Amino acid sequence: MNPRDFDLIQAAKAGDNRAFDELIRLYDKRILQVAHGIMGNMQDAYDAYQEGVIRAHKKLQSFRFESSFNTWLTRIVINQALNMKKKLRVRRFLSFDEPESISSSYMEDDQLGADEIMIQSELSNQIKRSLENLSDRERAVFVLKHMHGYKLREIAAMIDCAEGTVKNYLFRATRKMRDELGAFRNVTVDGKEAAAL
Known about the structure:
By secondary structure, this protein is an all-alpha fold. The protein contains eight helices and two strands.
């Protein structure tokens, strides 16, 4: 653990809320992105992130320096996101609501032609749909590994399971994503292969 984190954690444990806020600011963007990958939309991701930060503040005295603060905080936010996802699924089922629509979000590039923009948009939507078809744990592992570059041992600590279990989740998630994105395998966007899976 770096000395700055250690000092901020000690100060926060002693009741310094500004130290806790500074700690959160060090990791908030990346952790919010992880929550977004799990939840599928920014509003729910932000709710899970906020609940996770509140929970981390309440549990800070129990932090024992056995992992990095980033790993500990990420684990809390992931658990909040997974719990929230389950509750939303149950609520949607009980209210007979339609599943929430997946909006297209892609960066339009002036260099891309109309066909390439359409393919990029279609690929982006298909990736979102494919992520939604993964189990919660598969999605969490896939997002942490492929979208945020965490190592398997770090992911294991974050989702509180064995590294071998993480490998199984990742293998299954990658296979499912490959199958679902197979139609895009040989399609190119701006001279690059659209799907790297």
